[in-house]
Structures are given as C-alpha cells and as structure tokens.
Amino acid sequence: MFIDKAKIFVKSGDGGNGAISFRREKYVPLGGPDGGDGGRGGDIIFQVDTGLTTLLDFKYKKKFIAENGENGQGSKCYGRDGKDLYIRVPMGTIIKDFETGKIIADLSHKDDVFVIAKGGKGGKGNCKFCTPTRQAPNFAEPGMPGEERWLTLELKLLADVGLVGFPNVGKSTLLSTVTAAKPKIANYHFTTLVPNLGVVKVEGINSFVMADIPGIIEGAAEGIGLGLEFLRHIERTRILIHIVDISGIEGRDPFEDFVKINEELKKYSVKLWDRPQIVVANKADMLYDEEVFENFKKKVNELGFDKVYKMSAATKQGVDEVIKEAARMLTEIPVTELEIPEEERFIPEEKRFTYEINIEDGEEGNRVFVVSGSFVDRLLSAVNVNEVNSLRYFHKVLRNKGILDELRDMGIEDGDIVRLNDFEFEYIM
C-alpha cells in the first residue's frame, strides 16, 4: 500500500528530577548534601532509511514518545539519560508542523538525520545549591519537560524524470518498458492510482530514476481527480516527459490535452511549469494520418517546446530515442535542492518559562498580586516553602528574575498579598 501523507504525535523525554539527599554515616555526622542531578530526557530523531518507499508504518503507529531521564539519587549519583527514539522515514520526506502547516525539515539525502524534539534537561540535585551561607539546602531542581507537537509527514518522491499527461496515454506502459517496475496497466482511466518508481538502465548512459505519476486532469491544481494528491511527487524532478495520445482513438485533441496539462502545472507551481519538457506523441502505431503528428509538432514548437518525439511504448518504436535524450539532458541539469520559501519555513519559538501578574481585590481591603505562568509552576516545584533555607532561595529567585521590581512598579504596598498558585505571602518592604 502506498501512503504518502501521515499525521503523528511526538514527545521527547522529560528530564529527571534532582535529588534531595544528605550524607548520613556513623562517623560522618556533618556529611552535607549529596543529592545527584537528574538525567536528560531522550530526543526524538528522524532518520532516512533508503529501504523505505512509503509512509505506511505511520498508518498503524501515530504516537512516538521518548524515554524520560531517571531521577537523581543520594551519594551524588546522577540519573541515567533517557534513550533517544529514532523514527525511520523514506528519503524525500518533508516534516511539517501540523498547526501552522510550515516546513520544519526536508529529508532528501540518504544520510539525513534531524532532531525534531530535544529531551528535557535534568534537574540539579541539592548538592549543587550548597553555598558557604546555605550549607544544607533542603530543595532540588525538577527536570525540564520534553518538547511535544503534532506533525504532518509528506513524501515527495525523489525521481530524476517525471512522466505527466492525461490518464490512459501510456505513461505506465513506458515505465514498464524501460525499467523493471511492474505498474498495473489496463485500458481504462485512472488505472494508475499510486505513483510508481523505476530505475532506467540502458547500456552507454547513466542510470536514472523515473516516476509514473497518476494521470493529471483539468482542474487538478484545484483538487479535482487524483492530480493534486500526486503533483507534489514531480516537484523534485529535473525533467518532465509529457506524454499525449496522438492516435485520437478516444476522440481527444492531443494539442488541447498538452495545453491543459501545462496550465495545471503552472497553477500548481510556476517552477514546475518551467521545468524542461520532452514532449512525446505516444500510440504512433495507431496513427491513421502522419500529418496529425506534424501539425501537433508544429503547434508545440510554436509554444517554445523544441523536443517533440513520436513514439509507441507498446511496440517500443522511438522509445530508445526518448530515453537517450532524457539521459543527455540530465547530464546538463544539476541536481538542486527543493526550494522552501522563507514564509513556509517553521521557526521554533525559544523555550522560555514565562509569567504574568494580575491584581485582584483582597478580603481585607488590601490587594492581591497574582503571579501565574510556567515560571511559577517550575519555581514552586523546586523549593520547599516550609523550610527556611529553601524559602530564602525562593525570594532570591523572585528578586533575580525581576518579579519583585515589577511588583514595586505596579504599586505594591506593605500589607498587600502576593499569590503564586496555592502559596501566598504578605509583602513587606
């Protein structure tokens, strides 16, 4: 089953908590604090696996959670770091932030790895808070939480040559003729429901990868038919082989078909429309009038396309000529990276612990200054407000972070209350 789009959830590991511990031995009555640090949480890492060609695995597993770091222990024992979690994806996978739709990473090389979520840092044990004036700290630092987010994975096939054209014009037949690929072939529209890849190996030319894209129809760029789902698979191609049915056995005009497909390419991406094209008039073995091809070629040349070939994929007439021309053009066209516009790139926000201060009316005519936010949660989880040394550290952090200065700027007075979650104290200048 070919799956080229998936939505998954990733979460890196939380950091382990620092330990609160004191050395206690028979002949060492004043051993002091010896709580070790917590371990780092595991990262979530994407890794290219060239053996994969689809995102099928993500149809069955959608949540990926890395291991947490272990908590610190006494005797200055550090907690073990959490194991990193590697997620294997096919080459050509694009990772997007689900909420914004912006691109985080493009994994288009065989050795690509990308850290999508870094594990949380381990918290410091109480031995790290020991100072000449605070010799027995009864508090430690909690581990930092890991990062989490929903992602969209999109697979854009890595092919040198892309076959485009209306349904049932012979794209799959050409692919099966020049490669070992075995696409489904039948005489009805939309025989090809998924993209097919094949490697073209011909003596005397460099091998290259060819992709047979499901038939594009008029309106594909607006989502009609199968075209929009698979147009992205030809974004990375260096050359397009545009196939039309020259036989006219279905009552279609080959030149009108050629124009319509190019209009859809242009609507989807101007850069895709600008890609070099080899125009192939297929099913020439059923052509009743040679003049039909000559008129078609003349009109296509007038549009600026000078490489027009007559071919029959079924009888292999003219196939070698088309393939050799494609190989020659590939030697002149360098491999370029997929360009991602700046406005489509995902810029991660700096991970910071924030707070805000709001003023409420107190029960005794005074005011209550409510400090809330992620900074408050982390601070309160790190200290023991019922222990003197820990409470001193708590006030020191409020002062160093500028919260006390901000409270003064807001007009706090003696007797007013400062509340942080469930803990509150009376402000005294």
UniProtKB/TrEMBL annotation:
- One matching Pfam family, short form? GTP1_OBG
The Obg domain extends over: 1-158
One BP term from GO: ribosome biogenesis
Segments forming domain OCT: 345-429
Q: Where in the cell is it found?
A: Cytoplasm
Q: Which domain of life is it from?
A: Bacteria
Protein EC: 3.6.5.-
Question: Which CDD domains does this chain map to?
Answer: Obg
**Main localization, broad class:** cytoplasm
Alphabetized, the UniProt keywords read: Cytoplasm, GTP-binding, Hydrolase, Magnesium, Metal-binding, Nucleotide-binding
Q: Which residues bind Mg(2+)?
A: 172, 192
- GO MF entries: GTP binding; GTPase activity; magnesium ion binding
Report domain OBG-type G positions: 159-331
Which cofactors must be present for this protein to function? Mg(2+)
Q: Which residues bind GTP?
A: 165-172, 190-194, 212-215, 282-285, 312-314
Q: Mind telling me which InterPro entries this protein's record contains?
A: G_OBG, GTP-bd, GTP-bd_Obg/CgtA, GTP-bd_prot_GTP1/OBG_C_sf, GTP1-OBG_CS, GTP1_OBG_dom, GTP1_OBG_dom_sf, OBG_GTPase
Instruction: Return the GO cellular component terms, semicolon-separated.
Output: cytoplasm
Name the family.
Belongs to the TRAFAC class OBG-HflX-like GTPase superfamily. OBG GTPase family.
Instruction: Spell out the NCBIfam families in the cross-references.
Output: Obg_CgtA, Obg_CgtA_exten, PRK12296.1, PRK12297.1, PRK12299.1, small_GTP
Q: How does it assemble?
A: Monomer.
Q: What does this protein do?
A: An essential GTPase which binds GTP, GDP and possibly (p)ppGpp with moderate affinity, with high nucleotide exchange rates and a fairly low GTP hydrolysis rate. Plays a role in control of the cell cycle, stress response, ribosome biogenesis and in those bacteria that undergo differentiation, in morphogenesis control.
Entry protein name: GTPase Obg
Gene, per the UniProt record: obg
